Amino acid sequence: MRVSPFLTTTDDEGGMRFRPFAIPLIIAVICASIVASMALAGLVGAGLGMAVGAVAATGLVVFASRARPNLRIEVAEHEDSAHRVLVVATAEATAASAQRIAELAGKPKDVRLLVPVPSHRLDRLMSAEDDARREAEGLLARSAGALVAAGLPVSGSVGDHDPAQALEDELRDFPADEVILLIANGKDPLAKIESRLSLPLRRVRI
User: Fold this and answer.
1) Measured between alpha carbons, how far is 180 from 201 in angstroms, rounded to an integer?
2) Which residue, among 14, 15, 18, has the nearest Cα to 6 in the 3D structure?
């Protein structure tokens, strides 16, 4: 879907981001279209008027879904002064990568290992995620074992298929002081939200 550069910019990952004034302008235009379609119904018939209104409303939903809020990511408050680390793993930890994470983490009270469910869009639409969840749970168990062997106190969870969304969800409950991303060579799944993250973000590549 192409949108005028007057309304949008692109982020570091090539994704579309609306300019601050764009959303109010778009909503105003679409609302005006809906009002016009209701008035049109009296002239050309209710069916055509409703159809035009439905198209306008769908446009509003599409634009709203593509907008990316640029707010700071919420992080749970600490109840003590202990150091906690959140590890987002999109690849399985090896002995070497686990040792590197241990070096970066220092001596934390807790290391929360978060594994996104590696599902595909078709799986999500068909609600066929059982195999993907089992795969994530297996990766979680093996990676947790590697981190424990490296001397870290580990707890774990399985999160959303989108690593960025999984991170946001986890930070609402886990009071991390820093985030470590464990990835294989390839696209960085947290680059698109790094500017919104108030915590240090470090990367370990396998």
Assistant:
1) 6
2) 18
61 vs 58: which has the higher pLDDT: 58
111: burial class by Cβ within 10 Å (0-12, 13-18, 19+)? Answer: buried
Give the closest residue to 63 by CA, choosing from 13, 121, 10, 17: 17
**pLDDT(122) > 50:** no
Beta strand pairing status for 154-159 and 110-116?
A: parallel
Task: At 190, list the tokens.
Answer: 């947290």
- Reduce the DSSP state of residue 105 to 3 states and report it: helix
Tokens of 31: 């609302």
Buried b (16+ CB within 10 A) or exposed e, 163-186: bbebbbebbeebbbbbbbbbbeee
**pLDDT surpasses 80 at 106:** yes
Residues in the chain: 206
Token output for 5 = 């550069």
Cα separations (Å) of 87 from 34, 108, 126, 151? 47, 12, 29, 15
pTM of this structure: 0.66
Distance CA 155, CA 164 (A): 19
- Please report how many Cα atoms fall inside a 13 Å half-sphere around the Cα of residue 94, on the Cβ side: 7
